[in-house]
Amino acid sequence: MFVTTSDFSAEAQGYLSKVQHRVKLIGGRELARLMIRHGVGVRDRVSYVIRSVDEDYFADPEG
Length: 63
What we know:
- The chain is mainly α.
- The protein has one domain (1-57).
- The protein has two helices and two strands; from the N terminus they run E-H-E-H.
- The chain is elongated and about 75 Å long.
- The relative contact order is 0.15.
């Protein structure tokens, strides 16, 4: 497995089809996605609350 915070060249990616060993390239975008997904090396900065109307609150108690 090769990991970079940048990207791999087309030549590096093409090389994978020529080798017999299983090699995985993880570029910067995928690395960031995996870090966020698994909570590794990241932290929450801002949270947003989305509110909706509670229709039960306004329901007619007499039906």
